[in-house]
TrEMBL record:
Subcellular location field: Membrane
Protein name: Transferase
Listed transmembrane segments: 84-106, 113-131
Disulfide bond keyword on record: no
Naturally occurring in which organism (per UniProt): Wenjunlia tyrosinilytica
Alphabetical list of NCBIfam families matching this protein: SCO3242_trans
Length: 297
């Protein structure tokens, strides 16, 4: 039976559709928010992280559903244009993952969990189906990631987590803006702007550490993770500035996606939660390795 005749998508094809390994970049948002909000690492925090992962995967499925006609020309190897996943199946997968994300939010924190999860789901669907190709696209994605951080902070902790959410949102906006040029290549100003925004995120993270009055150990860990972030993202973005071809832009986008992890670790350490920051940073090599097998973009 040929791939186009398969009645149901195979699990490996679903994994490609939702960019399964890229979900490793999501729990750190929630952990950074929990640390900033003064919340310990509990089952509720882990449940919130699982909810955010489901909503992230839903967004990836919706992304390919919305882009299927463009992908048929530019990226025919993707699951939908290649016939491995039908549009109806992609919609069903996105819907199921959205419901799972909302259910996990309720399981983690009761109905209060929906205070952030429902707007987050709305932003995810709105971005993919309406805002992606508009000027508001990068801002919408930034809001989605910022809401992830605030979800981790939970009720009562959102005010203290706003700075961390803003830093994550800034980084996300830079990566999203650059991702629009993955196929065509970019004007030099686009990766240049991303490089400036990465520098701003690094500086803002140091300011967050100072604001929290972190201990020396926490500040040292924050500085280390910030250096990893600046080095990994900045190097790829600088290369894209010098040669803004499509392959270099794609590498910079992938570096930006994975760069969220040391940034999250830095923010988590800045809030005094070095033990929670360590596994976020430690997962970076795994995310990069898996990213070579299933593209995160």
């Amino acid at each position: 039976m040929s791939p186009r005749q398969q009645p149901l998508p195979r699990l490996p094809d679903i994994a490609r559709l939702v960019r399964a390994p890229a979900a490793l970049t999501v729990p750190g948002d929630v952990l950074a928010g929990a640390a900033a909000g003064g919340r310990p690492l509990t089952a509720a925090t882990l449940g919130t992280a699982a909810s955010s992962v489901c909503l992230y995967w839903a967004g990836m499925a919706l992304n390919d559903l919305a882009d299927r006609e463009v992908d048929a020309v530019e990226r025919p190897e993707r699951p939908i244009p290649s016939g491995l996943v039908s549009p109806a199946a992609a919609l069903a997968i996105a819907s199921g993952l959205t419901l799972a994300g909302l259910a996990l939010a309720v399981a983690a924190r009761g109905r209060r969990g929906l205070v952030v999860a429902v707007p987050l789901a709305g932003v995810v669907w709105g971005y993919d189906l309406a805002l992606k190709q508009t000027a508001a696209g990068p801002a919408a994605m930034a809001v989605a990631r910022a809401l992830d951080v605030l979800a981790g902070a939970g009720p009562g902790g959102t005010g203290r987590a706003l700075a961390a959410a803003a830093v994550v949102g800034l980084h996300t906006a830079s990566v999203t803006g650059l991702s629009r040029y993955e196929v065509s290549g970019a004007p030099r100003s686009v990766p240049g702007a991303a490089l400036v925004m990465s520098a701003m995120a690094t500086t803002a993270t140091a300011a967050v550490a100072g604001r929290h009055g972190s201990r020396r150990r926490d500040r040292a860990a924050c500085a280390l993770f910030s250096a990893v972030y600046a080095g990994s993202c900045g190097r790829a973005q600088w290369t894209a500035v010098r040669s803004p071809s499509a392959p270099q832009v794609r590498r910079a986008v992938a570096a930006g996606i994975h760069g969220l992890m040391p940034l999250q670790a830095a923010l988590t350490a800045a809030a005094g939660s070095v033990p929670a920051a360590l596994p976020i940073a430690a997962a970076l090599p795994l995310a990069r390795w898996l990213g070579r097998k299933v593209s995160p973009t």
